[in-house]
């Protein structure tokens, strides 16, 4: 990125320095290096910290910023501007992405610490469920190839209903022959009574009807 460093007073026609800026990310943070575009000689170095005012944008332009540089423990604020608006946009996006990464990393640390101090979750982490019992098939499900019980073309089936007889000599006059007691006893209805295995039981007359009320 091509940048210019302004003099005190902000004279754009006579900048203090012209060159390039590189954004370097390491494990300890992000550094802004102001280097000579030809030789790579370091002009100034700034440490970017989202919690401190290390880089601040000006109010009336999107291409100019105020940067805090450090050298041997000494600090100074310089005005910096980009020659192209696209470079200014890329600079803003790079710093915003790094800031979001820091906040997300801090959130992950907070969640992991809360899980570590939760006894139930800590116990679950020490004793994870066995994959053979949790993830395996249920022991109640039958194994082996599945059987096909569907009817094929041309196949039929019959249902036998208990108490029904297929004899053709039965009439609809009320004659019923069946095994009542499991011993071969038969019943025959007549006007005299009911005969069970030779014994005759008279039929009781119907109860008298109730008198009519006037």
UniProtKB/TrEMBL annotation:
Residue span of region Disordered: 126-190
Cited SUPFAM superfamilies: PH domain-like
Domain annotation NECAP PHear: ranges: 13-161
Bias (Polar residues): 153-175
CDD domains attached to this UniProt entry: PHear_NECAP
Domain of life from the UniProt record: Eukaryota
PANTHER family named in the record: ATP-BINDING CASSETTE ABC TRANSPORTER-RELATED (PTHR12847), NECAP-LIKE PROTEIN CG9132 (PTHR12847:SF9)
Protein name (record): NECAP PHear domain-containing protein
Species this protein is from: Bondarzewia mesenterica
Taxonomic lineage of the native organism: Eukaryota, Fungi, Dikarya, Basidiomycota, Agaricomycotina
């Amino acid at each position: 990125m091509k940048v210019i460093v302004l003099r005190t007073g902000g004279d754009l026609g006579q900048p203090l320095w012209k060159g390039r800026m590189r954004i370097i990310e390491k494990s300890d943070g992000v550094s802004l290096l102001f280097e000579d575009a030809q030789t790579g000689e370091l002009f100034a170095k700034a440490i970017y910290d989202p919690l401190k005012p290390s880089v601040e944008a000006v109010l009336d332009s999107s291409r100019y910023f105020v940067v805090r540089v450090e050298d041997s423990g000494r600090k100074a604020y310089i005005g910096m501007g980009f020659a192209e608006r696209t470079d200014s946009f890329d600079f803003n996006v790079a710093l915003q992405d790094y800031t979001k990464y820091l906040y997300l990393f801090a959130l992950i640390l907070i969640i992991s610490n809360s899980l570590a101090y939760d006894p139930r979750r800590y116990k679950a982490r020490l004793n994870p469920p066995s994959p053979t019992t949790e993830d395996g098939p249920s022991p109640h499900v039958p194994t082996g190839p599945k059987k096909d019980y569907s009817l094929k073309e041309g196949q039929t089936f019959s249902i036998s209903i208990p108490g029904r007889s297929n004899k053709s000599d039965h009439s609809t006059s009320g004659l019923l022959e069946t095994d009542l007691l499991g011993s071969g006893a038969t019943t025959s209805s007549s006007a005299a009574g009911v005969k069970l295995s030779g014994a005759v039981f008279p039929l009781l007359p119907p109860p008298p009807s109730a008198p009519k009320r006037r």
